[in-house]
Amino acid sequence: MSLHEESVSFRDNVQKMLGEKFDIFTSQIDALTASGIVERAARVGQLAPEFTLPDAYGNQVSLSSLLQKGPVVLSFYRGEWCPFCNLELNAYQKALPEITGLGATLLAISPEKPDLGLATAEQYQLTFPVLSDLGNLVARAYGLVFTTSSEVKALQMTAFNLNLEERNGDASWEIPIPGTFVIDSFRTIRFAHVDPDYFTGRANPEAVLAVLRSIKDSLQTTRA
To answer: Does pTM surpass 0.90?
Structure first.
């Protein structure tokens, strides 16, 4: 089953569980789509914003240092509490051997505290770095940040016992919409998938692999 198929199936289950309350989530997605956030996000051809962030073990990870080794794949996710994000991370974990085989590094970024990043990595047996973007500083540079609506906030707190203030260390209730980027060694964005639909609007790993293959082929042609 593909990532999209898994996400659709899980979304349908959540919708059945919540009934009419599910419309609170879809209303926020519609509002985000109408806001133009996708058009303002980082796009193909632009220079990727530089960053240095701590991983789940406290190590500082910088984009520029990783790009010296090859392309970088960035996956911005909302947090360990989001089952749709976890489906995506699992899908990329499965694709990791192919990603690294093409000379690339995969990074996952969320606004959660590092200890929650560690919990994510351990629970889902992730073997790629999970970075902590406190305050959404990097996600904001990539144009992905929005504030959770009061209706969604109330539903998440009552139905799912979710408190982002505790998880993210601030009271903003700001999170990123899902965004996946492939950045080449020249820090140019070669692939950008940004979608306000945080249920099913995730980038398929195969699309990322296709871009990485193209980058590798173009380098081999240049060297020849």
So the answer is: yes
At 143, phi and psi to the nearest 5?
75, 30
SS3 56: coil
Which secondary structure element, helix H or strand E, spans residue 174, and what is its range?
A: strand 174-176
Using the predicted structure, report yes or no on whether residue 224 has a pLDDT greater than 60: no
Q: At what angle do helices 205-223 and 83-101 cross, to 10 degrees?
A: 20
Q: Mind telling me the catalytic residues?
A: 85
What pLDDT digit, counting tens, does each position of 202-213 carry?
Answer: 999 999 999 999
- Identify the CATH assignment for 3-223 out of 3.40.30.10, 3.30.360.10, 2.160.10.10, 3.20.20.70: 3.40.30.10
- Which one, of 140, 63, 73, lies nearest residue 100 by Cα? 73
**AA identity, residue 147:** T
Domain boundaries, the chain: 3-223
What SS3 string covers 62-130?
EHHHHHCCCCEEEEECCCCCCHHHHHHHHHHHHHHHHHHHCCCEEEEEECCCHHHHHHHHHHCCCCCCE
CA dist list (Å): 60 to 79, 80, 185:
20, 20, 19
